[in-house]
Amino acid sequence: MEEPIREASQEMSNEFKTLVKAEDLTSLRQLQHLILGRLQDSNAVLSHYNEFAENCFSDVSLEFSRNTRLLKSMKADLDYIFLKLRSIKSKILATYPDAFPDDSTSDAFDRRPDLELPQ
């Protein structure tokens, strides 16, 4: 039973060998090796770039977080300053109603845009 199967498979493989030329197979194998080499080179370059980018990101992220904290602190300071200025201005207006021109006494003392609102 096994012998006819083995003969049939050999006959089938021989038929497949006649369908494709040996030179074509050699050429395909060489092209595959060339492509493999290029892919390995590309992989090495990308790995090197990923390491470089990771190092740069770690350096920049520390600076970015430090600057973010500084900006938040500055914003809090400026908010406090503007609050005090509004308070002083309202006290001056209460004491001296003629101290400021009419257009500066409108409800919009703070004309800065609110950066925390979505645009």
UniProtKB/TrEMBL annotation:
<comment type="similarity">
    <text>Belongs to the KXD1 family.</text>
</comment>
<dbReference type="Pfam" id="PF10241">
    <property type="entry name" value="KxDL"/>
</dbReference>
<feature type="compositionally biased region" description="Basic and acidic residues">
    <location>
        <begin position="108"/>
        <end position="119"/>
    </location>
</feature>
<protein>
    <submittedName>
        <fullName>KxDL motif-containing protein</fullName>
    </submittedName>
</protein>
<dbReference type="InterPro" id="IPR039843">
    <property type="entry name" value="KXD1-like"/>
</dbReference>
<dbReference type="InterPro" id="IPR019371">
    <property type="entry name" value="KxDL_dom"/>
</dbReference>
<feature type="region of interest" description="Disordered">
    <location>
        <begin position="98"/>
        <end position="119"/>
    </location>
</feature>
<feature type="domain" description="KxDL">
    <location>
        <begin position="16"/>
        <end position="100"/>
    </location>
</feature>
